[in-house]
Amino acid sequence: MTITSRIAPGKVQTSTPWLDLRSLQDSRFLLLVIGSCFVSFGLFTPFCYIVSYATAHGVDPTTSFYVLAMLNLASVFGRIAPAHFADAFGRFALLVPCAFLAGASSLILWSTAQTLTQLMAYAALYGLSSGAFNALIVPCIAQISDIREIGMRIGLLYSIISFP
């Protein structure tokens, strides 16, 4: 009752294939897939190893899980805030810096963090930027795709990046 279609109801829609690899011939979509593959190589690594890293660097084992909690909390804000700003600044204009910031923060901040405070700062920055990447990838696909191909392209992208 609350959803309307942009496609006129009188037109007969032909069924589209559930997987169409010809979408990879679209250079914009192909570049988005390739870039997403590179980001996905390390996107969830901090979520898996941040607690053991904190413990190995002298953080009390009973409180080291708070670093993961901070990372997840910041990720929630990172998934919500970009939706507000993406319409004003552009989806790709936010996606690219967020992906870069996630990688750079891991290389610079995580590798040099030794104290709980430094790890919390890293977790907040990484959670915010990685959450933004996760939230912005689907609107970017929708921006460069025909409305009838959006669902198939989202599935294709996530299928491809599931391997790295």
Automatic annotation (TrEMBL):
The chain crosses the membrane at residues 29-52, 64-80, 92-113, 119-142. GO terms for molecular function: transmembrane transporter activity. It comes from the Eukaryota. InterPro entries: MFS_dom, MFS_trans_sf, Proton-linked_MCT. It is found in: Membrane. Keywords: Membrane, Transmembrane, Transmembrane helix. GO terms for cellular component: membrane. Residues 28-164 form the Major facilitator superfamily (MFS) profile domain. PANTHER family: MONOCARBOXYLATE TRANSPORTER, RIBOFLAVIN TRANSPORTER MCH5. This is Major facilitator superfamily (MFS) profile domain-containing protein.
